Structure formats: C-alpha cells, structure tokens
Amino acid sequence: MIGSLRGILRDKQPPSLLLDVNGVGYEVDAPMSTFYQLPETGEEVLLHTHLVVREDAQLLYGFYTLDERRLFRALIRVNGVGPRLALAILSGISASEFAACVQDSDTASLVRLPGIGKKTAERLIVEMRDRMEDWHRVDSVAGEAPVAATAPVAGREASREAVTALIALGYRPQEASRMVSGLDIEGMDSEDIIRAALRSSIQK
Asked: Which residue range(s) make up the domain with 101?
C-alpha cells in the first residue's frame, strides 16, 4: 500500500494531477477539496494516498489532509459507493457538512451531489451514522478550503477547464455547462469557477 507521496507537482487538471517523486511520475486523482490547497506547479507537495487495485488497473487517489482520506475510505465501504463517487462527494461538500447531513438525516442536501439519488443518500445516512459520530460539526461552506495563489487564466479557457472537471466529477455535460454559465467568472481561474459552481449547486 502506498500511504503517502512527497514530490514536485508537475501538472494539475482536475480531478487528476501528476506528481514527480524522484523522477517517477505518479498520476493521482484527487477531490476538489485537495485541489483548492495545492501549491503552484513546480513546487513540492505531500499527499496522503489510497491505492485501489483492480484486475485491469491500479488507481491512486490523493488527499491533502488525513481527514479527507479517512472520509474517502469510509465512503468506499458503503454499498454502491465507489472511488469516483466518493471523490465527487468530497469535492462537493466538506467533511463537517457531510457529518451534519448524516447526523441530521438530511437526504435533501446529499441528493444535490452528482451520482447520488434518494436511495443512495438514505444508504449513506444509515451506514455512515456510526462512522461519523466523532466528527466535529462546524459551520462552513462547501469548498471553503484555502486557495493557493494561481495565475489568472483567460475566461473562456478557465470555463472550459471547469466544465471538463465537473463532468469528470460525475455531472452531466449539459448540467456542468449550466452550472458554469450561471456564474460571474470575471477574474476567476478554473479552480475558483469549480468551487463557485459546486457551492451554488449545493446551496440550491
């Protein structure tokens, strides 16, 4: 099991990033909660990782904090929740907000996340309730992690990258386009647009 990687961030295109560890490039998928805290490319970063081994692939998932990885591991133990859906959940809602939804049996908030219907939301609440008992509840907005300073990207290109990332997170293409087109993106880079789109979707 690969538990962590420390290396140079070579590329980041949500939800994937490339980490150079002593000359070996590791392709890692990460939730947006991690992307918001990444440094600029060319700088060093430490990621806590989880390796999924399948018959046809070995997939590496990375997280900026241990709590993110802890929640990811708890989520993929739920029947019907795979790594991709777990990443989408972590991208759209903070761990503390997810804990509040579980403890309050708030299915309405969970079904706003991509790939989660009413039955899946109910299953998450039932199976995660005991696992979330020791999570601290704090008032926060989804995706409000600190954002690393990044150079502005042209608005059109940033929008395209944001839509592509939202689709990779599980949103339908038309839905992803609608989420981005409804935003005032002036001065935003792609990560800011993704965060705003996810926040807007969860709060509706």
From this structure: 67-132
Same domain, 59 and 81: no
Query: What pLDDT, on the 0 to 100 scale, is given for residue 8?
Result: 97
Total count of residues recorded for the chain: 204
**12 & 40 share domain:** yes
Helical spans, DSSP H, in the chain: 32-35, 66-75, 83-92, 95-103, 107-110, 118-128, 155-168, 173-181, 190-203
Q: Is 10 helix (H, G, I), strand (E, B) or coil?
A: strand
* CA distance linking residue 190 with residue 203, whole number of Å: 20
Q: How far apart are CA 144 and CA 163, in angstroms?
A: 20
Domain count, the chain: 3
Rg (CA), the chain: 16
Residue 120 lies in a domain: yes
Taking only the tens place, the pLDDT of each residue in 1-54 is: 789 999 999 999 888 999 999 999 999 999 988 998 999 999 999 999 999 988
Peptide bond into 31 cis (omega under 30): no
d(CA 80, CA 119): 10
Domain-ending residue, one of 34, 63, 92 = 63
pTM: 0.71
Q: pLDDT-based confidence at 150, cuts 50/70/90?
A: very low
